[in-house]
Amino acid sequence: MTDTATFIINQGDSWVQQLILQNDDGSLMNLTGCQVHMQVRAFVGSPVVLLDLSTASGSITLNGAAAQINWNVPGTQTATFQPQPGVTPLSQMNPGTAPWGYYDLRIQFPSGEIVTYLSGQILLQLGITIPF
Predict the structure, then answer these.
(1) From its phi and psi, is residue 111 left (phi > 0), alpha (psi between -120 and 50) or beta?
(2) I need a surface site. Which of 42, 63, 87, 94 has the fewest CB within 10 A?
(3) Given this model, what pLDDT does residue 2 score?
(4) For position 129, what pLDDT does the model report?
(5) pTM, rounded to two decimals
(6) Positions of the chain with pLDDT lower than 70, given as ranges
(7) Which of 64, 36, 41 is nearest to 51 (CA)?
């Protein structure tokens, strides 16, 4: 079963994320030899990809034995992120927060099995201070 999570990106800040994955029994998931791919789109089925992260491109890194998935989207990139019209938030938003898109994160294991591990919505906390 796919877990769900909502991420909030502060516009203009580096978006640094580390996930530690567990199996259903609570043990750490061995990610050695895995490939990970995550895309963000304004809405499900949109032909436009707002953000594309993967181990293949080097934008996602793994510490397989420690079950860690890491990414770092620089502030220069998140500063360009803009609210997407027509995206309905899944939950109550904080003031200054706008819907940005939906994502899923898929893992391909060395056996070839592909699992969607995480999905949800990404919200954008609109910046006030102009970046450095």
Answers:
(1) alpha
(2) 94
(3) 80
(4) 78
(5) 0.88
(6) 1, 87-93, 95, 130-132
(7) 41
User: What structural domains does the chain harbor?
Assistant: 3-125 (2.60.40.10)
* Beta bridge partner(s), residue 23: none
Structural tokens at position 105 = 């994160």
Q: Do the beta carbons of residue 87 and residue 101 sit within 8 Å? A: yes
Q: Which has the closest alpha carbon to 118: 10, 56, 13, 40?
A: 40
Asked if 41 and 31 touch (Cβ cutoff 8 Å), the reply is: no
Q: How far apart are the first and last CA of the chain?
A: 42
> In this predicted structure, what is the pLDDT of residue 105?
97
What per-residue confidence (pLDDT) applies to 5?
94
25-32 LR contacts (CB < 8 Å, sep 24+): 28/66, 28/67, 29/67, 30/64, 30/65, 30/67, 31/62, 31/63, 31/64, 31/65, 31/67, 31/68, 31/69, 31/107, 32/64, 32/65, 32/110
In the block, tokens 């800040």 appear at 13
Nearest partner of 122 among 8, 12, 38, 3, judged by Cα = 8
